[in-house]
Design brief:
308 residues; alpha+beta; 7-stranded mixed sheet; 5-stranded antiparallel sheet; 10 helices; 12 strands
């Protein structure tokens, strides 16, 4: 999928960009940013169900033609479609924050509100993102309509009560025909960077993911990519399949588990990140733009997916 983005920077320059989003990249951002809960081993069942519920919406042929799929009539549900549109918008906003503003970590805005003991009520942005120099909020919109009004999203991006350096409104629309995106960055507010917030939230993020390094459930190997080491975690061995109650006679599950054999990729230093967090000096992992391998995707936060 190619995302055509109308990007308005903080100097009000309009910049037209195209960003390639692979299905594996979408799966990573949809699976973490799109679910609005911190990753952990006890959420795996929910994560799997999440993907199967929404799998009719990202079929390969449509995805490769820059649109999401609409389920067959007998599965059509306007409420569910609205939920998917919102979650797809969040996933794309998370992805674009990495490509445009070079963020190393994004979390739900509500996670940061809980960290600061701010009551979760009234309006607030969807995501909070960190890069080397800035802490910024992102308000997200995802819609099937062919136009989008950014005024409300820009206003909401500045709400919520957490001091940020700037805020972004990101809208993905025309999702089921020919996707378009807008990424608007208001003027810099020059707030102080909250390093303690980055440390605290990143500890929680990586601690939950570190629970997957459990050989009682998963096959774990070392994986080297672009001169860095990662833990490669085979998510669906026979023992874990038994726990999930999957039938090997189910064709769709067999294709996913046996043919694609999904692996979770985690940074070699994940236990250090889980204990100490990351800092603004932690360099993001940047996928080589010349790397056309569609079976591997590793995000700036060094969390990725791999299929055969």
């Amino acid at each position: 999928m190619i995302l055509p983005v109308e990007y308005i920077d903080r100097n009000n320059n309009v910049i037209l960009q195209n960003h390639r989003l692979t299905r594996l990249a979408f799966a990573k951002h949809f699976g973490l940013a799109g679910q609005f809960f911190a990753p952990s081993l006890n959420k795996l069942f929910r994560s799997i169900g999440f993907f199967f519920i929404y799998s009719p919406y990202f079929q390969k042929n449509d995805f490769n033609n820059n649109r999401f799929s609409e389920p067959p009539i007998f599965l059509s549900n306007p409420t569910e479609k609205g939920h998917f549109s919102n979650k797809a918008g969040i996933a794309i906003a998370d992805f674009l924050s990495k490509r445009i503003d070079n963020s190393i970590l994004t979390v739900t805005y509500e996670a940061a509100m809980r960290y600061h003991n701010i009551p979760i009520r009234n309006s607030h942005p969807d995501l909070l993102a960190f890069n080397k120099n800035d802490l910024f909020a992102i308000e997200v919109k995802g819609s099937s309509k062919n136009t989008v009004d950014m005024t409300g999203a820009k206003t909401q991006s500045t709400s919520g009560g957490i001091n940020v350096n700037f805020s972004v409104a990101c809208a993905s629309y025309n999702l089921y025909n020919n996707i378009k995106c807008k990424y608007y960055d208001p003027v810099d507010n020059n707030f102080k960077y909250d390093s303690n917030l980055l440390e605290g939230l990143s500890k929680s993020y990586y601690k939950g993911l570190s629970e997957y390094l459990n050989e009682d459930y998963f096959e774990i190997n070392e994986f080297n990519f672009q001169n860095e080491k990662f833990h490669e975690i085979g998510l669906f061995n026979k023992y874990f399949r038994h726990l999930l109650g999957f039938s090997i006679h189910n064709e769709q599950l067999t294709n996913i588990l046996d043919i694609y054999s999904p692996k979770l990729l985690l940074p070699e230093k994940i236990f250090d990140f889980a204990q100490n967090g990351i800092s603004r000096d932690t360099l993001p992992f940047i996928m080589n733009p010349n790397d056309k391998e569609s079976n591997i995707y590793i995000d700036n936060d060094r969390v990725g997916l791999k299929i055969i």
